[in-house]
Amino acid sequence: MKTICAVLGYVRANGKTLMLYRNKKKNDVHEGKWNGLGGKLIAGETPEEGLRREIFEESGLTVGEIKFKGMITFPDFVVGENWVVYLFNVMTFTGVLHKECPEGDLHWIEDAKVVTLNLWEGDLLFWKWMQEKAFFSAKMEYKNGLLLRHEVAFYE
């Protein structure tokens, strides 16, 4: 089984978060879901470098200040693949938002309304953790798109 390292970033501004509605990419395991921006790391990239690249590619925005919030492992999330995802809040950015994204539609969503979107069940959990001061390390086990169990540790 191979391990995939990835990043997920939540671009924040004025009480809103930039979210991606996944509806354009073929054979997308996330199709129909809302997500932050991110993707797989390229060999040799740090999570910070990957975050900056992915957000620029998907949105046209240049990342400024970031806060590393946590990491989550997803054993066998896709058959034969264990995923390790590094999560960040993007506090500042520059640039003009792309009108088009190859993976879906970009929307600024009020922070309080993010939990009303069609998110993965685990995303509802870690969205709350992303708002906390503590760093977190978690594991989320899915089967057939359903969250079977999770565990989390918080660090001050």
Supply the number of helical segments: 2
- The percent range for strand residues is over 45%
Shape: globular
Going by helix content, strand content and strand pairing, the class is mainly beta
How does the major sheet shape up?
Answer: 9 strands, mixed
The count of DSSP E runs of length 2 or more, i.e. the number of strands, is 11
Helix content: 10-25%
Number of domains: 1
Average pLDDT? 95
Given as residue ranges, the uncertain stretches (5+ residues, pLDDT < 50) are none
Structure, described:
The protein has one domain: Nucleoside Triphosphate Pyrophosphohydrolase (Alpha-Beta Complex). 15% of the residues lie in helices and 50% in strands. It is built from 2 helices and 11 strands. The model has no long low-confidence stretch (mean pLDDT 95).
Topology:
Elements: E1 2-13, E2 16-22, E3 34-35, E4 37-40, H1 47-59, E5 62-63, E6 66-78, E7 81-90, E8 93-94, E9 104-110, H2 121-130, E10 135-143, E11 146-155
Parallel strand pairs: 1-7, 6-10
Antiparallel strand pairs: 1-2, 1-4, 2-3, 2-9, 5-8, 6-7, 10-11
How do you describe this structure in short?
This protein has 156 residues and is mostly beta strands. It is 15% helix and 50% strand. The radius of gyration is 15 Å and the shape is globular.
